Amino acid sequence: MTILKANSCSIGRKSDEIWTGHRLLEKSPYRNDTLLPKLFHTFIFTHSKRPQPMNVVVVGGGPAGAMCALMLARGGASVSLVHWDGYSSDGVELVSGRARRTIERHSPDFFRRVAPGVEVHETISLWGTPEPVTLSAMFNPWGAGMAVERGLFDQALRNMAGAAGVSVIADTKVMDIERRDDQWQLSMRSAGTRSAETGSNPVCARFLVLATGRASTLFLDRSPVTESSQVALMASLPTQHDEPVPHMPNELPNELPNEALNHTLYVEAMDNGWWYALPARDGGHFAGFCISRDEIRRRQATLREFFVRELDRTRLLAPSMSSRAYNLRITGRTADAVAFSRMAGNGWIAVGDAAYAPDPLSGMGIELAIESAQLGATALLAAAQHNAMPEFAEYEDAIRKRASQHGKTAAHHYGRL
Q1: Do residues 360 and 234 share a domain?
Q2: How do residues 267-284 score in pLDDT, each as one tens digit?
Q3: For the chain, which end, N or C, has fewer CB atoms within 10 Å of the first or last residue's CB respectively?
């Protein structure tokens, strides 16, 4: 992987070989995926001429940014990815069975060797029913999902993109984005420099991909359609083992052998919010409590005391998880589904949570991020082929359609309470 500093307008991979549409189809892992949108097939089967070289800069190194950069590079584009660690997510997150299969098509041993996690064999929910309901992953046509540590997962995806030829500009914050003469110019600051210092030369590209997550950006005229009213309070919880579980040889001290791990995702509705808990590699769980901002403001206790008290009220989570750890660290994030007023424009698109962010309880965040990355990369490659931008409107329509479907599903489940 090539690591660059922000000091040149020359970005990405230099390659004289640009794939034709038929070669892209031959190499694509999605060629048999019946769920692939019409946009991809239109690009593949109607444009077999050799496209002109294109360059793209991707801002944001999470799952959407890394996967979009990877697919663009494998489609023949010259790609640079700018990543700032200060915005990185932490904790444990669910990779759905479908998202897992997509990643494993690019790297078959990704979850075994590169970013190991805990396979989720079942979901146990207490959601509008008198007793818990168990759903086995064996009935999921895509197979079991994975509970992964987000920092490790995101880094592994960036490494995979780097191995495909993407130039990764690490530990660098974008300070300004301007469009000049049909080119995007990014002014950036590397980690360790003073706040007033930026790179000596901007990074330039014909196309821009925003993968900056839920936060609205000052660089383009776009904002969330609605303000967030829900918050997810999250913490890592130790397991309630009566006796310590011995470690196998050659295992990390903070990890348990696979057979000793819990492989269950818990979901529970309460009178004032919703809980979820994912299994972790250390045998514990990563729990989240989705609740309204107003409810948090009304609490008459510290945030930790409030979290522990509410956890102790649960029927599913409390018996198997310990909330009494003295070093319990509570973090928070917005928990509403967030849609943005614009998802694409002249020479730019947004992917992942920067286009549409589902609520964390749904477990669809990474899946939708990767799907939007796939759609976005296809739209950009098609735009370069046509030297026009109609595909961006189709991309935006596709994302809005998925957001609408997700919203209807969420409304159905939340409306049952």
Answers
A1: no
A2: 999 999 999 999 999 889
A3: C
Q: Do 108 and 247 form a contact (C-beta atoms < 8 A)?
A: no
Same domain, 85 and 18: yes
The model's pLDDT over 43-92, given as tens digits with 9 standing for 90+, comes to: 333 333 444 457 999 999 999 999 999 999 999 999 999 998 876 667 99
Look-up of token digits 């949570």: 353
Beta carbons of 266 and 94 less than 8 angstroms apart? no
Q: Which of 273, 299, 334 is the last residue of a domain?
A: 334
CB 235 within 8 A of CB 333: no
Q: Are 84 and 212 in contact (CB under 8 A)?
A: no
Q: Which amino acid is at 363?
A: G
Cα–Cα distance, 394 to 319 (Å, whole number): 49
Nearest to residue 298, comparing CAs of 288, 310, 281, 286? 310
Contact indicator for 273, 115 with CB cutoff of 8 Å: no
121/42: higher pLDDT:
121
Sheet of 122-126, strand order: 133-136, 122-126, 264-269, 273-279, 285-292, 230-237, 331-334
Q: Output the 3-class SS for 14-58.
A: CCCCCCCHHHHHHHCCCCCCCCCCHHHHHHHHHCCCCCCCCEEEE
- Give the CA distances from residue 14 to residues 51, 170, 202, 245, 371, in Å, rounded to whole numbers and listed in that order: 15, 19, 18, 51, 27
Cα separation, 278 vs 291, whole angstroms: 18
The residue among 185, 155, 177 whose CA lies nearest residue 168 is: 155
